[in-house]
Amino acid sequence: MKPEPIILAWLVGFNLRAAVLAVPPVLPQLRADLHLSFSLAGALISLPILCMGAAAIPGALLSNRVGARSVVGAATLVVGLAALARLLPPEQLAVFLGTLALGLAIAVAQPAAAVVIREWYPRTLQRASTIYALGINAGGIAGATATVYLLSLFGWRGTFIIWALPAIVIALLWMSAAPEVHALEDEPHSLSVLIRDRGVWRAAGLFGGQSLAYFTTVGWIPFLLRPYGQVYLSIVLLTLGGAVLAGTAVLAMTTRHLAVSPRFYIISGSLVLAGAAGLSFGLRAWALVLAALIGLGAGLTFAGVMAMPPILARSNAQVAGYAGLMLTAGYFVAFFGPLIGGFLLDQTGIVAAPFWLVVGAGAVIAAMGLTLVRREAASFADR
Predict the structure, then answer these.
(1) CA-to-CA distance for 224 and 22, rounded, in angstroms?
(2) DSSP secondary structure of 294-332
(3) Angle 24-15-207 (CA atoms, 0-180°, nearest 5)?
(4) What pTM does this model have?
């Protein structure tokens, strides 16, 4: 008996984040073993983000030419293999090259996944897109929290193996059980049309703001909370991930047109800003509450913008291009978060310095929410 298609989409989403976000909890130990600076440690978080942006548009073109179903399956398999490759000798080089391949595979998979969602569930796009997004966030929370405990049992190298294996298994399951997707004709002029669409850049701004906020927080909070021990860190990361899931679940359980609502993003951006402001002042004792605020705001924003490409693209063939442009611009912005966070920490010696960037990201989300216009809402209502 084959699993439901939406379950397969959820599982793929899970494995597009677990191996990446299993890195921050082990980063202090990895940095010490491989003798990396804080800036290079930050680059290990930023590199997959940069790749997810750089390869999103090629991934969109590949999806339209080869087929979304095949692209998702092959890319998910590469995620697992690249995660294992990070352990090859010499380790200092392999950890960066493997991370590079991991990020590129995720980038290729994401636009294709948006096409699959639109093809499989044309009448329930917001809900189906949000369930896929829930899978992504569940993978993030599993990678970020379970790894804290796996680290003490298997070391950071063992955690790399543990998170690689599910991606390989899910890729094989997808290839054998995922329903076919209608072939899409390549549209050579579709990207040029989409580049002139302001709605794409609004979506990109929102996506970039939430990605920078989340990846910077999950990357540097282990350093901020290191004096409090691993147990407290795991609880805070669990709270952060749980809040992200809660925010995403809002869209999965509602039929209201929240994905294109200005008020929705003003609220979500304000939540991120409030939580980041507390962490930027080094309020470690309040980290549970502050992380929850950031996670809730980021989760709401992420769920909304992930639903935008299948909802707002004017044709099926434009879905991958819309998603590719949004992800490219958004991840390019997010790339600088962990990297500049590490630079600020190196230069100032202030462990809370990376969260200054998260404050700005919250403000950007709220400001971009104000720019949403009635056309987006009307497009959603038409669906």
Answers:
(1) 17
(2) HHHHHHHHHHHHHHHHHHH-SSHHHHHHHHHHHHHHHHH
(3) 70
(4) 0.77
Q: What pLDDT is stored for residue 383 in this prediction? A: 47
Which residue type occupies 299? G
> With contact defined as beta carbons under 8 Å apart, do 203 and 375 qualify?
no
Tell me: cis bond preceding 338? Omega within 30 of 0 counts: no
Task: Render pLDDT for 52-100 as a digit per residue (tens, 0 to 9).
Answer: 888 888 888 888 888 899 999 999 999 999 999 999 999 889 999 999 9
What is the CA angle 97-100-102, rounded to 5? 110
- Cα 357–Cα 148–Cα 251 angle in degrees, nearest 5: 60
pLDDT tens-place string over residues 325-351: 888 888 888 878 877 888 888 888 888
Closest CA to 129 of 10, 15, 298: 10
Domain at 5-382: CATH code: 1.20.1250.20
